[in-house]
Amino acid sequence: MADVGEVLMSVLSTIRVPKPGDRVHKDECALSFSSPESEGGIYVCMNTFLGFGSQYVGRHHARTGQRAYLHITRTRKAKKEDENNSGSGHPPKKKPTRLAIGIEGGFDVEQELYEEDVKVVILPDRQEVTSEDLGTMPDVVRERVSLSMSGIMAADSVSHTLQVQQWDGEVRQESKHAANLKQLDNGVKIPPSGWRCEVCDLQENIWMNLTDGKVLCGRRYFDGSGGNNHALLHFQETGYPLAVKLGTITPDGADVYSYDEDDMVLDSKLPEHLAHFGINMMTMEKTERTMTELEIAVNQRVGEWEVIQESGTTLKPLFGPGVTGMKNLGNSCYLNSVMQVLFTVPDFQSTYVSNIDKIIDEAPSDPTQDFKTQVAKLGYGLLSGEYSKPAPDPGDEIGASEPRGDQVGIAPRMFKALVGRGHPEFSTNRQQDAQEFLLHFINMVERNCRSGPNPSEAFRFLVEEKIVCQQSQKAKYTQRVDYIVQLPVPMDQAANTEELKEAERRREEGDSSAPTVRAQIPFSACMAALSEPEMLTDFWSSAVQAKTSATKTTRFASFPDHLVIQIKKFTFGLDWVPKKLDVSIDVPDTLDLSGLRATGQQPGEELLPEVAPPPLMTPDVEVKGILGSHGNEDDDSLYSPLLSPVLDDSTVSQLCEMGFPLEACRKAVYYTGNTGIDAAMNWIMSHMDDPDFSAPLVLPGSSSGPGTTPTESLSEEHLATIVSMGFSRDQATKALRATSNVLERAVDWIFSHLDDLDSMDVSEAGRSAAESEGGRDPPPGPRVRDGPGKYELFAFISHMGTSTMCGHYVCHIKKDQQWVIFNDQKVCASEKPPKDLGYLYFYRRVAD
């Protein structure tokens, strides 16, 4: 074996020192969930700074020829008996003042719990070099290798940077009114307790205005609790901006709200402002919950958290393949729940986990940025059982009376960073809607599986919409692709209406002992609301060439292998404040949707003529053409007319007043044919997540609004990128021309117009039996599967909290006829799965 010093000299040119901006992956393997704490530690390539577990470092060496790796291992230290013991000579830990980790005022990250061992390893012979060994080597070797080692160890790892930065909660800012706040010399002095609203005598949620000392109640919350808005009304009358919540004042601070800035704020002069009204901040004690505590309390609906998490029962922890927990990275429970369910679906298992070796072999040079690699890594981590082990004993923090189901589990940091990159919500650590993430992930799968097996086909189905003109009785049939059935919740169909009314009456009368009653909605009522015809007013009928009424009926043109049902619990109140319906629905274990199969055109049924509404022109717009790709300014024979449509200005204005972008409002009115505010509002709510939601209205027959992008000017690089995703050059050209040659918009456009792409095939079973019997050739469209409409429930995701922007998600999955609860790192056998409180339900097809 060659001398290690000579070997180091031979590879010295491949050893780099990290520079600012270099991504150093020293906490997590790029291809597995190995870490420095794992058996074998982690090997960091000293050239690319990618990290690899012991099972993959040899593969990276064989593929790249890289030989020098920094081997990092961490061993847990024995915990001190009492770190807060005053006899130790160390002051007690400071109490956290911010919802944050590893930053000033946040929770401490206890790095001292581990002992670290670092050395250089040279492959393939695995020769080891320690810092002490470098002292005997030539200066050029010692200096270069030492700088690289210290640079790698000093650099913030990618995972640490994401964890700390994204975990930081909202930071309250100093109020612009604090420094020069006007305070009236009116002789008002506030007692240290016994406060009441000066208007309504309410004794809870009491605020004192810091300008005139008025003591008034706070805002009324959307659930009816809180105050009666008297402090807010006082601000609206006087303009006095700052108020402090009485009962939250301590020597450390208090809750201060700025009505002018509409946010919780800091007041650096709070002791002075309180002293003006006789309040000594240093002697005050907390008697009221802070706004943060109130938010948590409001989110924790009575009974919901305990029931969904099965907190009141002794649950048996599970370990092994297919029951691996996932660490919560800070409000990532929505992601954890969705991915746990998806990797129960055979299509995702076979596409990613069964092919993991092939996927890793074909991965690009930086696998941390490759979608297929990171999805396969996550799937293997969940199903292999390698990380399904009990978490280390935390000592006496948890009493022996509470069984622990926490696991070592996996922390999907790379996966979360990759799927959330560039997304305004999923790139943050804020809580998200699990349904929105599911669709976002399916969209990413669609983009990355164009040239191979596509597991999202398991959920894809066709919806047939039938519109019947009530005047002519002629029909129009359209089909669209969908992945989720959104089930409405008819609150007026509650089985316990009288009980609900009585509880509401008692609450309105101020009865604090009034029980919280949950509405019990029959599942059959939800299905009836989904299937019943919808009445359309102001429908433009091509048969009568005028506006009339029509009915729209929705049916399944195909049944997917796996059916996802979303209970539409989240809605908007009359004031557009989002709220969650607190309901219990008797969701069945088996489901037969055969009666909702689309039938297509019936014998003797006439179709509405394919005639567009007459073109409407604004009187002040001159008709101009669009220059064709071969036209010129002197010859307008190839011009195509661009007509400016008449839009209902009042409807556009109403939508704009609700805060929606002008162009989105124009499109909503245009695409709903000026049929009114309700139809336009429904269009907006259905298209809010579209990438071109706020883009200018593009009329049929035009390419991109103000003008077209001729083929000759399209970027060859953009064309090649889209073609590499499995689309034809013609399709890529069409997408780029429709989006002014902007690659990102073109990719979004092409995936939102799959129905229009002529080359996409439909499987033989992709249409209903009625259509097949009719002998009609199925029109081009996305590939769908079809089969019987009978299903059995195999998983559901539940949400706890008042809105999708807060709270917590868990999922229950049926494995080998046993329900299992996945609550982040805790995986246990479920005793009482709360199937009536779910948000997303997952069914799989059963044979007849």
TrEMBL record:
Pfam families, sorted: UBA, UCH, zf-UBP, zf-UBP_var
Amino-acid positions noted as binding substrate in the UniProt annotation, renumbered to this chain: W207, R219, R220, Y221, F222, Y257, Y259, D262
Binding site for Zn(2+): C197, C200, C217, H230
Reaction equations catalysed: Thiol-dependent hydrolysis of ester, thioester, amide, peptide and isopeptide bonds formed by the C-terminal Gly of ubiquitin (a 76-residue protein attached to proteins as an intracellular targeting signal)
Domain named USP: residues: 324-846
Residues annotated as the enzyme's active site: C333 (nucleophile), H808 (proton acceptor)
Region (Disordered): 75-98, 764-785
Gene Ontology biological process terms in this record: protein deubiquitination; proteolysis
Domain UBP-type as annotated: residue spans: 173-281
Keyword Zinc-finger: yes
Sorted UniProt keywords: Hydrolase, Metal-binding, Protease, Repeat, Thiol protease, Ubl conjugation pathway, Zinc, Zinc-finger
Cited SMART domains: UBA, ZnF_UBP
Class in the EC hierarchy, top level: hydrolase
UniProt cross-references to InterPro entries, sorted A to Z: Papain-like_cys_pep_sf, Peptidase_C19_UCH, Ub_carboxyl-term_hydrolase, UBA, UBA-like_sf, Ubiquitinyl_hydrolase, UBP13_Znf-UBP_var, USP
GO molecular function: cysteine-type deubiquitinase activity; zinc ion binding
Protein EC: 3.4.19.12
Domain UBA span(s) in chain numbering: 646-687, 713-753
Family: Belongs to the peptidase C19 family.
Name of the protein this chain belongs to: Ubiquitin carboxyl-terminal hydrolase
